[in-house]
Structures are given as C-alpha cells and as structure tokens.
Design a protein that fits this description.
heterodimer, A: mainly alpha, Arc Repressor Mutant, subunit A, two-stranded antiparallel sheet, 6 helices, 71% helix, 5% strand, B: alpha+beta, Alpha-D-Glucose-1,6-Bisphosphate, Chain A, domain 4, eight-stranded antiparallel beta sheet, 4 helices, 38% strand, globular
C-alpha cells in the first residue's frame, strides 16, 4: 500500500461534501451538474471537490465529451477500509501486550521492592 | 502468534455522549505501574501499536501540561501511521488528557483523549474517553467497517450521508 496515496484518500474522505459525493456515486455514475444539484453549491465548487477525489484515485470520469460522468473507484476505498480495520485491532492487541509488560514489571518489582515503593509513595505524598 | 495469557478483562466500548467513544479495560497491576507503562517512552514502545510488520519510527513524549507527543510507525511497502498532540492535563497515576490528530486525517479535526486511572484491590481500571469534533466524525470512527470489502465501505458512506442530511 502506498502511504502517500492513503494520506490522499483519507484527506479526501475527511470532508463531508466529498463523502456525500462518494455516497451519491455509489449508486451510479453522475455528471457534475447532477452531482451539484443536492448541494447549495456552485458547479465550480463541486468541481474543486471532484478534483480532490480524482487526485486521490477515488473517482474517475468517462469519455463522453459533454457529460463526462464521474464514477466511483473501488480500490482506494478498500485500502482505506483495511487501514481502519487495523486500527480497530490496534487497542485490543496493544492492551494484550500491556498485560504482559505489567506482569513483567510486577515480577521485577518483587525482586527489587524498594524502587516500586518509591514510585508509589511519591504520588501519594505520604 | 498467541498470547500466553489474558490477564485483563476484555475491552468494553460504550458511547457516553453523541461525540464520544469510551474504552474500558482493567489490568492486573497497581495504577502507578500502569501510569509508568503509559507515559514512559521506553515502556510505551514495548506495548503500544506493535502490529506485525510494523515498527516504531518515532516515539517522543514530553509528558507535562502543554508538552507534545509524536508517534510514528512504519509498515510494509512504505506505509506509515503517524499521530501526535499536546498534553492538556497530567496528574500522575490519576488522569491524562491529550489531543490527538493523525497525519492521515482519517477523521475530521482533532480528538481529545482522557484516560482515567482507578485502582481497586491492586487492579487498575483504565477508562479512555475520546471526544471527537462532531457526532458525524464519532460515528464514522465507531462504525469503522465490521467486515472488509466495499459493502462495508458503502455502508459507512451511506451512514455518513444520512447523518449529513439530518444535520
């Protein structure tokens, strides 16, 4: 997976108008005029958003000279999805390792009781 | 790889408000020890986010109010996961509040994370609350894809669109 492209994908997805455009395109291709209709935005403003989405590889456009319909591209979204899934695993797996680290710290604290007692009393201030 | 044992309870994820996600987990250790594991870079690097094929590139933590942190991991094929923020409240063994922003911007704006440490009978419960900029952002983070593939991606987008319409 290309890091720069993933950044571009997430930057493109961070904007609600662009997410709405993608959701619209998920139900089929559409022209710039059709895409700008649901928004209180000029076609020029919509075109700017489309350029960001295009640069991120999330959409492409057809060749018909007049309409140039935009369509959704699946691959970058699937990559973004994979990334999010990893994030969900992140905490569960990290906490599993934290358990092991804490067990190890407990073990060495038992061997060297002075150093932990110092850490504990420092906070309580007793 | 399998973990030799599961000492803590499973993660519990709740939504205390429409902008927040709360993750609760308890650990078999006193809270100062958990605090150290959370705030000392050399210990943090041993447990946080060690995904297979990924390694720490940057782990800088200036744990004091107004101090900054920066975490960067590198993965296969040049992939990178990077985030950072500022510590807002630092009460050792008790409470850690910091801002959080990913370079990848997979959600909008900045989140604020609050970690509360409480100890009972030698066990420490960590309650981590992440507050996002808006409900829509929170929903996007929470829903994440339950299954991989485009269908899940579309479901997330549908959800985002629905909430954008309602607002």
């Amino acid at each position: 997976m290309d890091a720069g492209r993933l950044d571009a994908t997430f930057a493109a997805l961070a904007d609600p108008t662009r997410r709405a455009i993608l959701a619209r395109l998920a139900s089929g291709e559409a022209s710039v005029r059709e895409l700008s209709e649901p928004f209180s935005m000029s076609q020029a403003a919509i075109s700017k958003h489309l350029k960001v989405l295009e640069r991120a590889g999330l959409i492409s456009h057809g060749r018909e000279a007049q309409r140039r319909p935009r369509r959704l591209e699946a691959a970058p979204l699937a990559e973004a999805n994979e990334w999010l899934e990893r994030y969900r695993q992140f905490w569960e797996e990290s906490y599993g390792r934290l358990d092991l680290l804490l067990a190890e710290l407990q073990q060495s604290a038992k061997k060297r009781p002075r150093s932990t007692r110092r850490a504990a009393t420092k906070r309580k201030g007793k | 790889m399998t973990m030799p044992s599961t000492r803590g309870k499973p993660l519990e994820i709740t939504t205390p408000s429409d902008r927040e996600i709360r993750i609760t987990r308890s650990f078999d250790a006193p809270r100062m020890m958990v605090w150290d594991a959370y705030t000392r870079p050399e210990l943090v690097q041993r447990w946080l986010g060690k995904m297979p094929g990924w390694s720490w590139a940057v782990c800088e933590m200036d744990v004091r109010e107004g101090g900054q942190y920066r975490w960067v991991w590198r993965g296969p094929e040049g992939a990178e996961l990077a985030l950072g923020g500022t510590y807002r409240e630092v009460v050792p063994g008790d409470r850690l509040v910091s801002t959080e922003r990913y370079d990848q911007q997979w959600y909008e704006g900045e989140a604020v994370g609050t970690v509360v440490f409480t100890e009972s009978n030698g066990r420490t419960t960590l309650v981590t609350t992440l507050r996002y900029a808006t409900k829509e952002v929170r929903d996007g983070v929470l829903q994440g894809p339950a299954t991989s593939g485009m269908e899940a991606g579309y479901a997330v987008l549908d959800e985002l669109l629905a909430s954008a319409d309602a607002a």
